[in-house]
Every structure is written in C-alpha cells, then in structure tokens.
Amino acid sequence: MKITLKIWRQKNNTSKGAFKVYQHEHVSEDMSFLEMLDVLNNELVVKGEEPVAFDHDCREGICGMCSLYINGRPHGPQQTTTCQLHMRTFKDGETIVVEPWRAKAFPVVKDLVVDRTAFDRIQQAGGYVSVNTGGVPDGNAIPIPKKVADEAMDAAQCIGCGACVAACKNASAMLFTSAKISQLALLPQGQAERKERAEKMVAQMDAEGFGACTNTGACEAECPKGISLTNIARMNREYFMATLTSYEVQAKGDGA
Amino acid sequence: MNWFTKLLTSTLGRKLMMALTGLFLILFLVVHLIGNLQLLKHDGGEAFNVYAKFMTSNPLIKTVSYVNYACILIHIIWALLLTMHNRKARGSEGYAVSKNSSAWTSRNMGILGTFILIFLVIHLQGFWAKMHWGNIPVKVYDGQEVKDLYAVVAFAYSNILWVAIYVFSMLVLAFHLWHGFASTFQTLGLNHLKYNQPIRFVGRAFSIIVPVLFAIIPIVMYLTTPH
C-alpha cells in the first residue's frame, strides 16, 4: 500500500519545528507503525536525508517507550501502543499526520521524541515500597483478597508512556500518577508509606507543571493499558486524607 | 508551604475547592427553585412576596447567603486559576489534528460558566439588587408591609426578550450541571462501583429537571399575563 505521511520535524528543543510531507510507496499492511517508519528512515538515509527520530524500545507493548500522536490520537486509532499498531488499520492512499506528545512538561527533544523524565521524577518522589534486605519472605504470608489484588494489578498495568498527558486538554498527568499511587495504596506492603507517597507524588506532579483534571475522561479513552478514572478518584481520596491526617510531610516537589 | 495552604493550592486542592463550592451551589439551586415555584401560585404573588421578605430578613438565611456569595466568587476565581494553569501546562505548540473522544460539556465548562456568570449579573441586577435597594411598590399582608417583588418579576416576564434570556440561560446551566454534578463526586474521591451509577443517574436527572422547572416559570408567567 501507499501512504502519505505528514511528520513533525524539529531539529532540537530550541529550534522551531514544522511538518514535512513524505510519500511512502513501500508499505505492507503487515508492518507495524514503527516498522513502517524504519523503512522510511532507511530510504531517507539512502537519499542522504536526516532520518526521523522517534522513541521505541521493546516493540512488544510493555515498555512504554513508543509514543506518537497519530491522526489526532495518542498511539493512533486503536487503543494500543504505537508499536502494536499495524498498517492494516489504515487505508491505502491515506494521509497520516504524526506529531509528538504536546505538553509543557514533555519538551520535544528532536522530531517526535519528547523528554518524559518528568514521569521518572514523579515515580522517584514516592512510587516505591521500601523493603529491608534479609531473608526471602514466605509466599502468601500476607493475605490479599483476589479482588484487591486484581485492582492493584490493573493499576500496575500503567507503562508510563504518557498517552494520558498527550490526550488531556490540560496536559494533566493525573491518570499516570494515580495509577502509581493506587497500585501501592491498595496492597498491604504499601501501607507504611501510603500517606507520604500520596503527598510527595502529587507535589512532584505539580512541580513538573502538569495541568489539573477536568474529569473529561480523554485519558482513560486513550490509555493503551486501560487504566481507569477510578484511580484518579482514589488518588484524590488518598491525597486529601493524607494531607489532613499525616504527620507533617516535607513535600517540596524537587524529586526528593 | 504550610499543609493547609498546600491543600487548597495544589492542583488537587484547587479541584477540591471547585467541587465543594459547586456542591454548595447545587444545594442552593434546589432552595432557590422551591422558592421560585411559588411564583406560579394563583394568589397575586402573596406567597412569593412573603417568602422573598423572609429570605432577605431572616438572620440565619442572611448568613447562609453570605456563604453562598463566597462560594460563587471562589468557584469563579478558582476556575480562572485552574484554567490559566491548565493552558500553561498544555504548552504553546498545539496539535495540528486532534480527535478528542471526551464529552463536549466536560471540555467547555469554562465557556458555559462564563455564560452563567453573565446571566448571574443580569439576574442579580434585575431582581436581587431591586429587592435590596430598589424602589419597589409595597403590599400589605396581615398588617405587614412587604415589598411586591412579584410585580417586578411579572413585569419582566411580560417581555419576551427577558423570557428568552432566562430560558437560554437555563439551557446553559443544564449543560454545566450535566458534567458538573457527577464530576464533583469524582473530584472528592467519592467513586465506588456501588454508587457510580446512582450518582450519574441523579446528576443527569438533576441537570434536566431543575433547569426545566426554572425555565417553566417565565414561560408560564409570560403566557398567563394579558398582553
């Protein structure tokens, strides 16, 4: 099949970007979207042009590295990661517009690559459980109801790709942050740091300059891992309760 | 930052303020509606006038009304703060193509709210300010002098333009509530599989029934006044 690509090209963070149109003649419908871009880049290299920079890693839909805002939607028309999106989803002769994630907190590094380390800093602020070294604890020593375990697992599905931020009209990172807070708040192991975690992660999220939530649900609709809005409500609950009842927490939002 | 100021100024805290003031305003709508429905009583406005007098003179109601004014102001100011913050977070470069799958009302609460604010100014200037400081004819019920606010209302609603403004504003309010009602619960963290459906249902029913009842009053009064 043949397609026309309209791709955002930007040299670096300080330069101004613009769309460039490419005619792609050698596309198989069995290719993934990233493979299609690989072939395009090969052709560009042969022609002596600069290849299109885009993020990718596992290409199995689990690392959260690939991004791309395709035809007006994060990860394209299907609720999946870009690497799992196949060209058969598109029509022959179609024009596909490819843009980077747009958010103040996700500055463009080059072309379609954005800097998502803001997510890492939110995670580092409290998205962990402190575990002492020592003997391996017995399996099943801590009883967890199946339903609760399932809910925690559903939240833990988040791969931190940033589609929620990209889809949100406010560039809010609440679906991501709430999933990370939820997965630990639901489990017994997460209780010790529960309040501190909520306060610190929210403070970091704010410090990174992400927007607030308007409960539009655009994030949930685009999340390739089906993270639900319920998590945001839980985060609100966790945060309000933590702020009202915790010992004073020094949440400066500086990644510490 | 002190924990309390942080609670009110963080992104979550600002949303909390929006939700709490929003919920109070929803309660206010119910009280306001019950009062207004007395306009439709065929008693020459006696019930409504006595009620209006009570609402402007009872000390408890007066106190609550100050809370109400505060809620309206906070709701507006915090909405502005949030909108400015959110615009900044989006960044300067927008998307060339965007297919948003979210509901129209949820994305346009600011615009809907602005229309409601404009309506509020017209509305307060037309009735509330007149009741408080205006020169209104007086009626006597059981030896008590009561301002005849009913006459002011009836005069306004004999004009089709005023009726149109009120009906349109109630339509805007309905859309604002359509998203706002259930949204407050989500923001407050009151989200539970057992209650999500009932909350959504009550929210949608509320956002239809209340504005419709409000809008019926000027329509009925317009149709029943001799022209």
TrEMBL record, chain A:
Keywords: 2Fe-2S, 4Fe-4S, Iron, Iron-sulfur, Metal-binding, Oxidoreductase. Pfam families: Fer2_3, Fer4_8. Belongs to the succinate dehydrogenase/fumarate reductase iron-sulfur protein family. Residues 149-179 form the 4Fe-4S ferredoxin-type domain. Its cofactor is [4Fe-4S] cluster; [2Fe-2S] cluster; [3Fe-4S] cluster. GO terms for biological process: respiratory electron transport chain; tricarboxylic acid cycle. NCBIfam families: dhsB, PRK07570.1. This is Succinate dehydrogenase/fumarate reductase iron-sulfur subunit. It comes from the Bacteria. Gene3D superfamilies: 3.10.20.30, Alpha-helical ferredoxin. The lineage of its organism: Bacteria, Pseudomonadati, Bacteroidota, Cytophagia, Cytophagales. GO terms for molecular function: 2 iron, 2 sulfur cluster binding; 4 iron, 4 sulfur cluster binding; electron transfer activity; metal ion binding; oxidoreductase activity.
TrEMBL record, chain B:
The chain crosses the membrane at residues 16-35, 66-84, 109-129, 149-178, 199-223. One of its GO terms (cellular component) is membrane. The keyword DNA repair does not apply. Keywords: Membrane, Transmembrane, Transmembrane helix. This is Succinate dehydrogenase cytochrome b subunit. The lineage of its organism: Bacteria, Pseudomonadati, Bacteroidota, Cytophagia, Cytophagales.
